[in-house]
Amino acid sequence: MNAPLVDIRDIWHRFGQHPVLKNVSLTIAAGSYTILLGPSGSGKTTLLSILGGFVNPSEGKVLIRGQDCTSVPPAKRPTTTVFQDYALFPHMSVGGNVGFGLRMQGVDGATRAAKARDALALVGLAAAFDKKPHQLSGGQRQRVALARALVIEPAVLLLDEPLGALDLKLRRQMQDELKAIQKRVGTAFIHVTHDQEEAMALADHCVVMNDGRIEDEGPPERVYARPATRFSATFMGESTILAGTVIESSDRTSTVTTPVGPVSLSSALPLGSTAALAIRPEHLVLGAASAGTKLGEAAVSDVVFQGSFKRVLATSVEEPSLRFIAKLPATSIVHAGDRVAISCDTDQIILLTD
């Protein structure tokens, strides 16, 4: 088995007496696109700062390529960081900005210019070499910052919410470009965001953080389809959560009583134990008869058209504190005030372990 490119071991970090990272361990493979995903205050940006050398952890180690880099300053470790605000020098040309890191390394002018042109070509800005940053759009300046980071050929590229300042259309365009560039150069990218859509669009390794800890990690398809915890199920996309108690159990199946009726699962659970079940919006069926699990009736409170689908909120008739979140085809005929039967595909019910 190949050693990981980045090995984060038992990292703790405190601001005063307040812990912002709590015993975080994580390995990152060479050539991967890792997303650190979580809400504000979850510790993701602090972890990225520790990886970049801008913050020294209170405890623990950071190994890159097998070398202990925990106390190595940013300029001397094999990482570069792309920040949300781009941090381009306004008085320098685009080519000068891209070549700045090479200049600090003592690379001669001709080599510097050639490498800067190659890096700009990589991000689709070959013609911008002699322009100034103010002559470029936000998306172009972001690509210049990316070229500047890549030109020094880091082992790991760190991206701190790099798309946060862009509008929705440009953000989606840059997501496609980032993924394509990462595949071309093969550098490991570690990217911080709080945007679940961005995480699923870019990552092949998704790390969900909350309150200074890693809640879940793995391929985004697995984290979404089979989240490990309640937090992961509600942050990485939306879910309807049912709480219940196991009333029947055998070697292969269990029945959980919930406020909207019994739910059978193909999992052996201890009799009398509590269980939390998650159902993704696209797996709920409203109105039409279903051969799956019946979940009672609900009153539709809101219908939001979102282009390719309709997002429907409905309140359970049997348990008014329970709100269903459903994603229906855009052509579905459903209105606020409708009273509908609710069901779901039994195989798509997620058993949460926490």
UniProtKB/TrEMBL annotation:
It comes from the Bacteria. SMART domains: AAA. It holds the Pfam family ABC_tran. Transmembrane segments: none annotated. Keywords: ATP-binding, Nucleotide-binding, Transport. Residues 6-236 form the ABC transporter domain. The keyword Nucleotide-binding applies. Gene3D superfamilies: 2.40.50.100, P-loop containing nucleotide triphosphate hydrolases. GO terms for biological process: quaternary ammonium group transport. One of its GO terms (cellular component) is ATP-binding cassette (ABC) transporter complex. GO terms for molecular function: ATP binding; ATP hydrolysis activity; transmembrane transporter activity. PANTHER family: SPERMIDINE/PUTRESCINE IMPORT ATP-BINDING PROTEIN POTA, SPERMIDINE_PUTRESCINE IMPORT ATP-BINDING PROTEIN POTA. This is ABC-type spermidine/putrescine transport system, ATPase component. It comes from Mesorhizobium australicum (strain HAMBI 3006 / LMG 24608 / WSM2073). The lineage of its organism: Bacteria, Pseudomonadati, Pseudomonadota, Alphaproteobacteria, Hyphomicrobiales.
